[in-house]
Amino acid sequence: MDKRITVLPGDGIGPEIVTQAVAVLDAVAQKYDCHFTYDFCDIGGAAIDRTGSPLPQETIDACFASDSVLLGAVGGPKWDGLPGDQRPEKGLLGIRKALGLYANLRPARLFPQLATASPLRKEIVEQGIDFLVVRELIGGVYFGEHKTENVNGEWVATDSMPYAEHEIERILRAAFDIAMKRRKNVISVDKANVLDTSRLWRKVAARVAQDYPQVTYTDMLVDNAAMQIVRNPAQFDVVVTENMFGDILTDEASMITGSIGMIPSASLGAGTRGLYEPIHGSAPDIAGQDQANPIGTILSAAMMLRYSFHQTAGADAIENAVQSVLDQGLRTGDILDEGGVLVGCAEMGQAIVSQIKK
Ligand code: IPM
Ligand code: MG
């Protein structure tokens, strides 16, 4: 197997965590006799500084010329003053959209080794936390019209949240397809008591559900879902929801598993090319200090092997190696517990690499 991977380190801790994930991919390549070529490109603040744009055309071209994309994180205080359409985040939204990656898969799985890192009570954690949020990624309020206008002497800002039936249908189908390979339970999250987009969402969801008679399907209001995630997370298998609800709920879901630093994601579209990134941000406060947790990015690389390259052995090897180093007690600061051994970003990455090479 020979694959070309576009690597977008981005800002803040992005470069450090991506370095470790690339080292892990190299270890997999060596062990499983495959070959990866990396094409490093700029995105976000790093791209703004070099080219003036958060998503230069050469970066888009490189992504289209590759088999998959690995991304670190974007954003930071340095670029916070820029207008909305020139911010680093615009680069991330732009590449998701350009590649047509409408389905963002974000697992919320508690590693048993990290049970004490979860802020939830032991009785709740013991029920098990293993669900997958399928977040719609290229529609809704993120991509609706944004405007700020002066009306009668005061500023009025509007963000619109459009959803077309076909956008809802394809993400629901993605969720049901995945549920068929899991515990066959889909909870669709919306705000149908207030929003038109949610009422349409529910209609389409009910229609799609008819094609999956083996899957149990329920609707849940987003405020209730936020509560249920901390009250009884064991009830969730596959959660499907629109873009902004998914953004918010996945930060919540990640925290109950111990740390947002552990959570990978895969963004997929119609083809096999995906974009793989941890769900956390660029953490400018610890950037460049070798303190970041690289596991979310390393597990994102595992998802790339699994979903885009169908390299299951390599993906399993990475996931098992992560389990092993956690078993050994190695912890970055965000997941440090009593008895844990504090390590930096590079040491954590190298420990996972050594484990794979064993
Ligand atoms: C995420 C992030 C992004 C989002 C930001 C950085 C634009 O929070 O991937 O969850 O809101 O999608
Ligand atoms: Mg987010």
Give the structure's gist in a few sentences.
The chain has 358 residues and is of the alpha/beta class.
Task: List the SSEs and their pairings.
Layout (H helix, E strand, L loop, with lengths): L1 E9 L3 H19 L2 E6 L3 H8 L5 H8 L3 E6 L14 H11 L4 E7 L12 H4 L4 E7 L9 E6 L2 E6 L5 H16 L4 E6 L5 H14 L6 E6 H10 L6 E4 L1 H14 L9 E3 L5 E3 L18 H14 L3 H16 L2 E2 L9 E2 L2 H13 L1
Parallel strand pairs: 1-2, 1-3, 3-12, 5-10, 8-9, 8-10, 13-14
Antiparallel strand pairs: 4-5, 4-11, 6-7, 11-12
Helix pairs in contact: 1-10, 1-11, 1-12, 2-4, 6-7, 8-9, 10-11, 11-12
Magnesium ion (MG) binds next to α9.
Could you walk me through the main structural features you see in this protein, from its secondary elements to its overall organization?
The chain has two domains: 1-109 and 262-358, Isopropylmalate Dehydrogenase; 119-256, 3-Layer(aba) Sandwich (Isopropylmalate Dehydrogenase). With 358 residues, it is of the alpha/beta class. Strands 2-1-3-12-11-4-5-10-8-9 form a ten-stranded mixed β-sheet, with helices on both faces. Helix 1 (14-32) crosses helix 10 (295-308) and helix 1 crosses helix 11 (312-327). Helices cover 41% and strands 20% of the residues. Bound molecules: 3-isopropylmalic acid (IPM) and magnesium ion. Magnesium ion binds next to helix 9.
